[in-house]
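pinning this so it doesn't scroll away 📌
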Amino acid sequence: MWRRRLTCLFGGEEKRVDSRTIHAGRGSSPVADAFPQQKFCDNRIVSSKYTIWNFLPKNLFEQFRRIANFYFLIIFLVQVIVDTPTSPVTSGLPLFFVITVTAIKQGYEDWLRHKADNEVNKYPVTVLEDGKRVGKESEKIKVGDVVEVLEDETFPCDLVLLQSSRDDDTCFVTTASLDGESNHKTHYTVPDTVKDVESLHATIECEQPQPDLYKFVGRMHIRRDGQETAVRSLGPENLLLKGATLKNTKKIYGVAVYTGMETKMALNYQGKSQKRSVVEKSINAFLIVYLCLLVSKAFVCTTLKYVWQNQHGQDEPWYNPKTQQERDTNLYLKMFTDFLSFMVLFNFIIPVSMYVTVEMQKFLGSFFITWDKDFFDPEVQEGALVNTSDLNEELGQVEYIFTDKTGTLTENNMEFIECCIDGFQYKNHKFLTETDGLCETDGPITITLNKAPEELEELFLRALCLCHTVQVKESQPVDEIDGVVLDQVDGFSPSPEDQCAFIASSPDEVALVKGAMTHGFTFIGSDSKSMKIRNRDNRVEVYELLHVLNFDPVRRRMSVIVKSESGEVLLFCKGADSSIFPRVRKEEVDRIRVHVERDAKEGYRTLCVAYKRLGNEDFARVDAELREARLSLHDREEKLMAVYNQVETDMILIGATAVEDRLQDRAAETMEALQGAGMKVWVLTGDKMETAKSTCYACRLFQRGTELLELTVGALGEGEGKREERLLELLLEYHKRVVHDTPPSKTGLHRTWSSPGQDYGLIVDGATLSLLLNASPDGTGSHYKNLFLKICQSCTSVLCCRMAPLQKAQIVRMVKSSKGSPITLSVGDGANDVSMILEAHVGIGIKGKEGRQAVRNSDYAIPKLKHLKKLLLVHGHLYYVRIAHLVQYFFYKNLCFILPQFLYQFYCGYSQLPLYDAAYLTMYNICFTSMPILAYSLFEQHISIDTLLDHAALYREVAKNAMLRWGPFFYWTMLGVFHGLLFFFGVYCVFSNPALLPSGQVFGNWTFGTIVFTILVFTVTIKLALDTRHWTWINHFVIWGSLAFYILFSFFWGGITWPFLEQQRLYFVFINMLSSMSAWLAIMLLIVLSLLPDVLLVALRRPRGRNTRQVRRRLPSSGTSTIFMLSQTASGHSFSWSD
């Protein structure tokens, strides 16, 4: 680590170089002398935060950055240095407890990160050195090493593919941990590399590391003995990324180009920072107010003390003469010392024990999420997991949800639903049966025996079997392909060679091939030059594969050029309707458009299929142009695009397909509930726009009436300068339409479908986002971003497709740092989602099929997306209400506690004499009043769980930190002031005649303080009992038990002579106090008067709003004894109302 940092510090020269030069195999090469030697980082991955050496100072520094911890440290030091009325133990012990517990917790979490890093860095790999296979640890790989990777292994660094065990010089990888796509992607070896990589002499020039997963530019100089050096271009199809997994390929060899923290995966990783909840920020704000109160009280008492002592005879009364040392003490130093003493005396207004209670509440409360049986999923045999208990209440404040698509919203399992051929719709999988097939025509759904011509049907099926990048892996048992039982169509039983699994870069391609197979045409397999299919007559057809025109998001289509056995050259093309329709005859479009629009409304993924016959001269011209474009080193993509657009014209439209991407169970219901709760849902995915758009429709994020606005490469057009101009035009147009011309929503957050206005949805892709975020730095960049953000915030839902992991984090950061600092939540299931999970205020990991990187880096993990509904609407809502009440209650009860102490100074000559005994000062927050509020903050349910689930709008009532705003804070503060004044002056009136016993015995100042303290303890405890809506046996035990403990403690503390005490101020004080009827009357009367406003407020206040009335009807009546059940029931959390 130190070597890497020193390299970054002193080796800055490399950062100024635009490209890097790598010598393959690290052996001597005749061309090596032509390039300067460069230094690169090693292959170690570091995600941990601390080391053994910096843990203690770094952790202490981070903890004492919190205002409360720093304040308590100062108070503790003052108590140690200055002679104060209270012991240093009262502040030191709670502070030590909080610091120690937090340090242990954070140290354990970082140890887990160290452990995960070691698993990756110590992973065994095989490297070729001097022609020999050498075993190494992954962290010892260096740039230029030739690495061997076997099937199902993960690539240890970013590699350029040199050699593959497959005959067609390709390999297949899955990048689920990078971009969330679990489908197989095809990568190609560099052309003209020798089969024996041990004798390879080559040099690679490529760009410096950058985080874009889909871009890579370079060239490779290959030298052969006795031949001229060959130069071959390198692109993303040649680059194997760290974190991806090798599939359906026994072995590959690749040369390391990026290692360690310079790999694309590491560059897309966001370091895990400590997250702070909005409640903690509110506590700090309230703390500043109470600190100001504390300083003001200390300043007022100090000032009045010296004003009073300046009066004649008050500075040095005859009964308390000063010592010579006191007379010689500097006046200002003495004033400062007195100020500090008053600060310590009034220090208890700052609730030191609140932080301990909050930590305990968060830690213990997190177990309720883990224990909730509703979160248990039988498929993964696991329940919810809490990685960070500090953010429980943040679950109740979410305003924006950023969700991944693949594996989160969907199961990534597409199914062929139907198709349309020449205007005839084929449904219910009754495609081509012995009864001529069941078809449906346009208009009403009626069964008819009419169908498309047989020649056109077979041509359509051949197009489905040939126009794809699907590969076959012979690994499945007989009669099963990829887990799907094969149908016997037209008496055809699949032969053993057909027993195989399909793998492809897109799940819809597999679905289409399976659909064709089910209906009589089976794709058998392919190699680099041919493709084989079995037709309905059980005859194998072989086609020569001439060219593949790959899919890209601009064209939104793909094509293949094949030659049949008869020598006919055919181009088959499939793609989005918006991409295919302009390139076919207009008279053919109308017959297909009806079906495409109807399927799209149903949320299906639709593709149109077309073909074209190429003559020999046409093909020769196209072939030459394609080969020339693919060998180009500059503007390769633009040249290929021009050829693609030229050849994909004047096609004949055959039909269309409809494929369904299965949603997660109850995904649509969950999304609808979350939007009803006032949360805005953004979908951030690396998938194609068409697939993601259909998923948004299926999840009800986009409705039929939603007007979609596009900010995509296709909408911007071509040309860099024109794109920026077009982008600004679209932003201004959308801003005017969505922001200016749309009336503001009255409720602010909830979906606009409840209002008569138009709903808008925005679609943006990764390329356009890069243009937005990296716009020219002349001031227009921030203008673009502000316009974009306002448009997004005014839309019902936003879809961001073709996003790199780092772009996902940038989107989250942009919203998080916008005006109002809205609370964000990110949910995903793959390593590609880790960056946005770490960036958001709350990160949720789904225990899906894409590994556990998201789960490990998340704050909370759930098995399925459907569990997010209860996690937010129930747990989040209740946690926030509980902890908000806890915070307000702590400030209130401590103000009640210390205000009589402040008032008492006016009657004791500002002598810093405490009103309460030292034992009461120490145990008030620790024993007498801490357990009832802790139980309340764990078990309170002001609204039943079923009601919270049924009425998602209730979530909005506590949104935007509603219970911890300044209004409720000042209400609790005024209530504390009222109670404190009533306690002190009420008892003061009783003591107008201190002879409260029949014997005439006079009560003193300690009895006065004890009566005040007794009223205080009973009032704040009964106040909490009145606020409790959900009683459990635990609440009864701690509330009444705390009061009983106070009485017993006071009896024993004042009724026994304790030998370790130098002076026992409360000896028999409490017992004598209870022997006075006046004291009893004063205690009961003042308690009733203190709580009377609360009772009247609850009795006279009427519920406001429809939701409140509904909740009131669902709550138990006031006369019902509600018992909180912690039992093993099917209700999951087992929170239930019982009589």
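📌 and the second one:
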Amino acid sequence: MSLNNSSNVFLDSVPGNSNRFQVNVINESHESSAAVDNNTDPPHYEETSFGDETQNRFRISFRPGNQECYDNFLQNGETAKTDASFHAYDSHTNTYYLQTFGHNTVDAVPKIEYYRNTGSISGPKVNRPSLLEIHEQLAKNVAVAPGSVDRVANGDGMPGDEEAENKEGEDKAGAVKFGWVKGVLVRCMLNIWGVMLFIRLSWIVGEAGIGLGVIIIGLSVVVTTLTGISMSAICTNGVVRGGGAYYLISRSLGPEFGGSIGLIFAFANAVAVAMYVVGFAETVVDLLKESNSMMVDPTNDIRIIGSITVVILLGISVAGMEWEAKAQVILLVILLIAIANFFIGTVIPSNNEKKSRGFFNYQASIFAENFGPSFTKGEGFFSVFAIFFPAATGILAGANISGDLEDPQDAIPRGTMLAIFITTVAYIGVAICVGACVVRDATGSMNDTIISGMNCNGSAACGLGYDFSRCRHEPCQYGLMNNFQVMSMVSGFGPLITAGIFSATLSSALASLVSAPKVFQALCKDNIYKALQFFAKGYGKNNEPLRGYILTFVIAMAFILIAELNTIAPIISNFFLASYALINFSCFHASYAKSPGWRPAYGIYNMWVSLFGAILCCAVMFVINWWAAVITYVIEFFLYIYVTYKKPDVNWGSSTQALSYVSALDNALELTTVEDHVKNFRPQCIVLTGGPMTRPALLDITHAFTKNSGLCICCEVFVGPRKLCVKEMNSGMAKKQAWLIKNKIKAFYAAVAADCFRDGVRSLLQASGLGRMKPNTLVIGYKKNWRKAPLTEIENYVGIIHDAFDFEIGVVIVRISQGFDISQVLQVQDELEKLEQERLALEAAIKDNECEEGSGGIRGLFKKASKLNITKPTPKKDSSMNTIQSMHVGEFNQKLVEASTQFKKKQGKGTIDVWWLFDDGGLTLLIPYILTLRKKWKDCKLRIYVGGKINRIEEEKIAMASLLSKFRIKFADIHIIGDINIKPNKESWKVFEEMIEPYRLHESCKDLTTAEKLKRETPWKITDAELEAVKEKSYRQVRLNELLQEHSRAANLIVLSLPVARKGSISDWLYMAWLEILTKNLPPVLLVRGNHKNVLTFYS
């Protein structure tokens, strides 16, 4: 079989071949084309296997004698890359072509590498062949730059990306990753099983009874379970990175919600460290009291022990996640032993001492007595629930270290839901057991036994031989209601319960100490709060947030030393609940937005159940502490407003974006069902700016009357060879739309490629917009260079005005004295910026090399610098000024630059003169009225000029004032011009005649044959017959300029009715002459002509 690079290798395979799937390796080497094989028979292939029995993507079978040809290409089932033969693109390895599905193709088969993000730690990103490369004709000789294959294989090819990614890959290679048990299950169980299990659960059962106690536990579990389900759905909807709750919320709802909850969630975890450590310290201090071994006093002892404990925990955390995970496992073992110790103690026969304290082992009478509630004064269901609920939290402990999990998508749902189940069973089991073994009140005195013959008060203890009736009248120290150490009393070995308390507090503190920096680091990496960027840096193979650890340590120490945690505790609990609420809402919002990208693998969820979970979390916040809930909402709202105002430059494809799209689509469709009404008319403009940055003044004046009220589309027409135009157009679309956003211009950018300018504008006029949001006004700049422009440009310019009128679209032509196009100025500025960057880079290189001693390369650099006459670096400001001066400041047309920004400035007190000469439906009046509503134009008053008869000036003035008052348009003055139709003075008419002279045919001065010949050769010229036929109109344009000079020379802006050139009657050059003479030597002018449909009404 012959392998070659001839053109026929790109043809489809022979039709006679009956195989459905074929894979043909094409050798690109020219040198080996003749030396491979002398076999002249056509190659024979067998069907490619895609079965599961092989790990190879393709399995190729060969006829005898052909396999040797492939040994150089296939090694261990994969293609071997060779330096001698490769091609820039390929379906699998980017180094050779495959004949796939029957023919040779550059087209790629689906691979995961194409869908990765650049810099992904899970593997390199590979760029598939672009549509252009597949669609365009294949080049015969494809040159591949050295290293280009590696560049394509490793990402987007940005400079320095490979080095950074390789470095990151090396760092991640030895990173410690946890599975679902060690990373999620253990952490969540330790965080959920807190001090509450050992100290307060017995009191809750005493107050609420077994029945309501189980309901309280169940209600808490409902909240956490719904949150866990929502979190599982979000986790399985794509790859989860580090950041836990912050990452899930921010990627679902966007940076506004994520940034606000991320900061308070990280802070809550940091303060939670202090709360758990103080709980541990209080237990130790109680033990010291019993042994009479106090160091100073209880408060200071708590501070001392707490500070030492936090330092030790910080050391464990900083040592690395592996050490921290080992510590967590040890603490879990201790905790499990303590819980088992309690259950064992319930079946060990009670002695007299324990009986006197209310423990009688399992008794049906005690169970029945304790089943119902017995709330003491000031307590109720919700107050008891508020005390217990914090014990059920902690379900985010595993998610908070999502960046350290092997497979977060699998680990977080499995570990979290199983942890909720196990801990719930344990809570309910302990509640039932303690309620069935211990009475509510006991005296602790072994002498309070019942002597035969005494009357029993009917209590369970009475039936078991003890009389605790005096507890009704005086406080007792034992029993469920009074003794917080019931579990220690019931257990088989009391010190194990103390060890369990130590384990619960320390494990929770350790989990929070790890969670806070991890979440905070993820938040800082996203650069939502730029002032916090310092804490984004990570260290070591696990990218440990050491700076975040120090900050968390400082916060924890501060609250330990303050020792006022009872006040801050409800706020922290509400911070966690706010996170739960937003996780539930994120799941609901993503489902409600109906984005095709919302495809969670975890199918056990429902959008309405998630919404119910969010509402339930918010309700629980108020149940726990209403003022803490209010504070939480205020802080979150403030941070939300701050992030929204700052508008971080991130795009995570949030459900907020998806819902915005759905809402916009629904609203656009709803608009189509309602007919347009004149009261709702607003200018919706197509602005022919070209690139929006090249004609800023034209865009600014249009934006002034469309901002927040109408549609504005900046349009550009690319004229030339279609291939080049489309490429240039596609490459600049995003950049130009980004320029509009950066400059806070509420407009869209649209572009078309066409054979001529007029065809492109015609396409835009017909196809732009959506439904009712279609343009109704065309805005163009005045063609200042019309006298020097080629004929085709004039025909296109006047032609688009005719086209707009044909499509019943209004036209606005804007003229300013300096013109609009500043593209040359932008080009010079770009060149200056490049030169300045090169100069600064060279100066930086020289400065760096000056610091190196004994470097051989420094001398060569100085020699190059001396040849370039580079002196020592000067201050940046002075050097930039010198550079500009040396570049001939005359190249900057200063007047043009100033003119391009004139509509950005606030217009001083003055007038907008409206020459409403022809009724076009009211657009000529509506546009200046809208301008006066804008902040920059509000100091300008409207002066209205209309034509009229000399003998009826007052009557017509009253009529116009009445009309304007009905339109509710405020005006400063009305002028009736009665001498519009008189002839202009001779000087003005002479200027007009000189203007049109180069474009006249003068056929009347020539014989008939010559005149006919000239008409055929130059049909665009102005004939004498045409000029005579429209002489009155020409007079009017010249006369109007005289009147404008007289009345509106000092106006800030002139809005003037645009004369209409009747098709086939007015030549293009004559029409341009009318526009020129009409607007010559005037302030900025808007020539406006509506589509002669009403845009104003006085009806309500």
